[in-house]
Amino acid sequence: MPGKVRVVSDYPVSADTLWAITKDLDALVEMNSGMVKMEGVPSGDMYAGQQIDARVSLFGFLPKQSYGITVLEVDNAYRLFRSTEQGSGVKSWNHTGRVEETPDGSRLIDEIEIDAGWKTPLVVAWANRLYRARHKPRLRLLEKRGLLG
User: Fold this and answer.
1) pTM of the predicted model, to two decimals?
2) Which residue in 4, 26, 27, 83 is a FRET match for 41, CA 20 to 30 A apart?
3) Domain 3-144: CATH class, spelled out
């Protein structure tokens, strides 16, 4: 039975600014770097139909493993993307990310459905930690790029 993850993160920037960094694959690699080292991810914004064949290593210590990401949808008008991923023991990792305006800035909502067989509870716990751990690096990246007010 698949497990679900939902992480909501608020930022003091416009929804368009947060959306720009959310769909930026360079930002993804940088934000994940503390927990997951990623190789083979192209630069630039993700786009619908994109197939990414990456190699990932937890914390950069464990052996690199193949990991595939297919970007199913990128909707700039609704600030929404959907992807499906698999590899490293994960049968399916279906991710929807969307950015909304808030009175104080913007909000990123990540919803992920994961099937990793008997390891699903462990992978769901890992995903919760990973997505929550992206918040501070995302703030640092916004600041580094001069996007925080």
Assistant:
1) 0.94
2) 4
3) alpha beta
* Sequence-ordered alpha helix ranges (H) in 23-145: 25-32, 120-133, 135-144
Task: Tell me the two tokens of residue 37.
Answer: 């080292």
Q: Could you give the CA distance from residue 65 to residue 87 in angstroms, rounded to a whole number?
A: 7
Rounded-to-integer distance, Cα 114 and Cα 137, Å: 24
* Helices 120-133, 135-144: inter-axial angle, 10-degree rounding: 30
Average pLDDT for residues 118-135, to the nearest whole number? Answer: 96
Closest C-alpha to 52, from 79, 31, 76, 23:
23
3-class DSSP state of 15 = helix
Q: What is the largest CA-CA distance in the chain?
A: 45
102 token code pair: 């808030």
List the alpha helices (DSSP H) in the chain. 15-22, 25-32, 120-133, 135-144
How confident is the model over 81-109, as a mean pLDDT? 97
Q: What angle do CA 12, 59, 48 make, to 5 degrees?
A: 60
Best CA proximity match to 134, nearest among 41, 50, 30, 52: 30
Q: What is the pLDDT confidence band of residue 62, given thresholds at 50, 70 and 90?
A: confident
